[in-house]
Amino acid sequence: MRPEVLEAFGSDVISHRGPEMAALIQEILPGVRSLFETREAVLLSSSSASGLMEGSIRNCVGRRCLHLVSGAFGERWRQVAADCGREPEALQVEPGDPFTPEAVELALSSGAYEAVCLTHNETSTGVTHPLSAIARVVRRHENVLLMVDAVSSLGGIPVAMDANGIDVCFASVQKAMALPPGYSVCAVSSRALAKAREMKGRGYYFDFARLAEASEKGQPLATPSVSHLMALRVQLRIMLQEGLEKRYARHAAMAERVRAWARERFGVLAKRGFESNTVTCVTNPRGIRVGEFIQKLKGRGYQISSGYGSLKEATFRIGHMGEHTLEGIEGLLKTMDEVLEA
Ligand SMILES: *Cc1c(COP(=O)(O)O)cnc(C)c1O
Q: Does the CB atom of residue 119 touch ligand 1 within 6 A?
């Protein structure tokens, strides 16, 4: 996180019902719209994105939805739908594989789904699914909403909500947006919002209709995380000043460097052509002790992650998103080599 962002996060809080708050929200909304590349409604949530996962189901799915599950986060969304009493079905691929538009078309031909739920960038496997190609397939089915978890892509990999015809798209702010954890943003198409308004039992806190109305008035629905909003305003300025194209290019450059390093020494889980530009999941054919490796790096000031869930010892993950730089990545790679050779 940038120091000026942390400073904003730590500054004196303001009343959440005064004109200062309205001005704050009025500045944030267009910035978030730019990130999503949308003209649709933007919702702000004082929860992490898992809350919006639940909101997306409760607002937009009456009964059946199709989940594209390629790893732990796709599975979480399916579980959320099941726990909300819906009837989710999963289309699954092996860890590291992308979904093909053909497989999605085939799954949709049964016809009975209200929505397709896609994890754009599966953080547990380091795979970026072909969003535009999948979106084109879903768009051919008139009554099927396209809902996208962009938690670890928004701000690092293009999401292009309107161009792709996405209906619901959300992200936590602690990934490629480089903010303190525990807040999230969402964009909802007018047709998804219309469906939400008709949905019974959609609850209060994640009610998309209420949240959209609050945004429109420049007011929070309930007491928001004021500190996050103040930090978000500063970080949006930083991101838009860098420019989204440049930001995406920086992420691509960091990712390419990490992949080259990983391929020489280990391997990359993601199938070629579908590797994520925000996180690389490195395979471990040499069988190094992942936990020990991570601890040693920590001692030298670098933090990487073990594999997620069932991939815990079989992989490790290197995040190269947010405000990281190619220079910082070079430092990490050099340090990893030193630790591996020691
Ligand atoms: C981190 C992550 C989540 C969960 O986000 P929370 O902020 O923990 O709610 C969901 N989906 C993806 C793709 C993620 O990377």
A: yes
